[in-house]
Amino acid sequence: MIFPKGFLWGGATAANQLEGAYNVDGKGLSVSDAMPGGKIRWGILNSEDFDWSIDETKYTYPNHKGIDHYHRYKEDIALFAEMGFKCYRFSIAWTRIFPQGDELEPNEKGLMFYDNLIDECLKYGIEPVITISHYEMPLHLAKEYGGWKNRKLVDFYENFASVVLTRFHQKVKYWMTFNEINSACEIPALSQGMVGATGGSDKQNVFQAWHHQFVASSLAVKIGHELNPNLKIGCMIVYATTYSFDSNPINQLAAMQYNQAFNYFCTDVQVRGEYPAYTARLFKENGVQPLEMAEGDLALLKAYPVDYIGFSYYMSGVQNITSEDSETVEGNILGGVKNPFLEASDWGWQIDPMGLRLALNELYGRYQVPLFIVENGLGAYDTVEADGTISDDYRIDYLAKHITAMANAIKDGVDLMGYTPWGCIDLVSASTGEMAKRYGFIYVEKHDDGSGDLSRRRKKSFDWYKTVIATNGEKL
Ligand code: BG6
């Protein structure tokens, strides 16, 4: 048997992309509630004049209804249980607990929802894996405080993390402090609550905001471990294996520097507890002046590193700075140069299972802490046949190849805790706000024009994944 006993097979989602019920039971507005749907989303968020205003006459807001998991979570968890999930990764919507973000007392109805959700998982022996914050800070904190560049966010997050850890630590062992914390270099709006109008295009702010998030993350680890030393509290990054286009040393250097800037900067701080040696060069390249730090910050980072690394892996990238005419592709958060050896998804993300084996070896070799693949999957167009079936063989193929890569990495000696494919039930896409971009084992009858009765349906991959879990990854 290759996968260890107790391997955490499951699936992953995020509150803002599936719960819906965006204004129910005292929930406040979050930044994701202000994000228009459709392929225009990225452009709007990156524009200098977007100020987080919600305008329903101009845009649609698919996250507002999501797939109504808020009211259908029992049905959804039952389907996860039917597949044999050992764990379920979900996030807590900050705005259900602190609607504005700067209140002192939490919203009990919000806490009750997660109490019920956790109990429903435990009823089936499914281990909850919680992301404390996944792309959804309270809108008030983004608009009035300017997002994570403001030090006050550390206190607000500390209060939020303390409330949820205190409430749930006896039922939930696995936590992550921020989703894809390193994504801020490309999408500070989602990651740090900063759009152009609130300083998101200024690298000084992005790095300052990161420092605040690092401190906040260490405070969460401190609180969690004081409550229960057995809790496992991880960081979470988006990892894109990065190749040099050719053997030209200039491109090799570019790939290494890209790795440092994108893949490793945040984990270097969060796992090793200190800013890496290349920080000064990175700051210089980005025009960043020394960051403002409070006394005790660096000691806190050193004293409370994370217990494991959670990461998403969808695709790899290529660095080529010697040739200007290289073909380009889209990608998860970052696009770039086309790799002639790889095929791409319908959304242009380059599919690379071997890159996952490389990622696992690179991360484990660098840090020697357990790894957890908390997102992976294929966003694709699915077709419901006349008889109601959905034959998503392309998804099965993608996942099987990535699981094989995981097995090989385990044979390489990597300590891998678990695997939670992204969007185990169809949900709203983060980058485009589309429903048409589906990842799930479970199809949800909802479409981009808003139609659909939200009914759930098992895809072919549902039974396939059930077998994978039942055989602990032996039968793919
Ligand atoms: C990750 C995010 O980057 O990728 C998720 O953590 C997101 O929130 C996932 O949904 C897939 O991206 P997309 O844009 O296809 O939804």
From TrEMBL:
UniProt GO BP: carbohydrate catabolic process
Pfam entry (one): Glyco_hydro_1
GO cellular component, one term: cytosol
GO molecular function, one term: beta-glucosidase activity
Keyword Nucleotide-binding part of the UniProt annotation: no
PROSITE patterns: GLYCOSYL_HYDROL_F1_1, GLYCOSYL_HYDROL_F1_2
InterPro entries: GH, GH_1_N_CS, Glyco_hydro_1, Glyco_hydro_1_AS
Active site: 375 (nucleophile)
Protein keywords: Glycosidase, Hydrolase
Gene3D superfamilies, per the entry: Glycosidases
PANTHER family hit by this protein: 6-PHOSPHO-BETA-GLUCOSIDASE ASCB-RELATED, GLYCOSYL HYDROLASE
Entry similarity comment: Belongs to the glycosyl hydrolase 1 family.
Protein name from the UniProt record: Glycoside hydrolase family 1 protein
